[in-house]
TrEMBL record:
It comes from the Bacteria. It comes from Streptomyces resistomycificus. This is Uncharacterized protein.
């Protein structure tokens, strides 16, 4: 297995920290699954694309899923999904099944980015209300 879970989690971190465009890739051999994210303000457009192989251009492939969510909802869903995997499988079983460690560092980086984002959002809301 590639470092796709880590890539995915760090892509969500980058969105929380303000990146407008980011991506993550999961090799399915020979096919590849690509997550594309575009942030516009607090909203993220996400697409999951299946391409024939890793050399295929980003414009190639079939869109398997797309959605529009707030960056906060996307981050919260990612944390919940990986927490559930950790709870149901545990780190040892995860590593045994996938041949690599559970992405603990990346999950904690996402939690930290979420807290920073929530503090910044709350501060902006407070400043807005004070300016009214």
């Amino acid at each position: 297995m590639t470092d796709a879970p880590e890539e995915f989690l760090y892509a969500v971190v980058r969105l929380l920290l303000g990146d407008e465009d980011t991506r993550a890739e999961l090799e399915g051999e020979p096919q590849v699954y690509r997550w594309f994210f575009h942030r516009d303000g607090s909203v993220v457009d996400a697409r999951l694309v299946l391409a024939d192989d890793a050399q295929a251009p980003d414009s190639a492939g079939v869109v398997l899923w797309s959605g529009r969510h707030t960056v906060t909802a996307l981050a919260r869903s990612a944390v919940r999904a990986f927490d559930r995997i950790d709870h149901e499988q545990g780190e040892e079983d995860y590593e045994s099944q996938w041949g690599r460690p559970f992405p603990r560092t990346e999950l904690e980086a996402l939690r930290t980015a979420m807290r920073s984002h929530q503090r910044a959002t709350a501060a902006n809301d407070t400043a807005f209300e004070a300016g009214r």
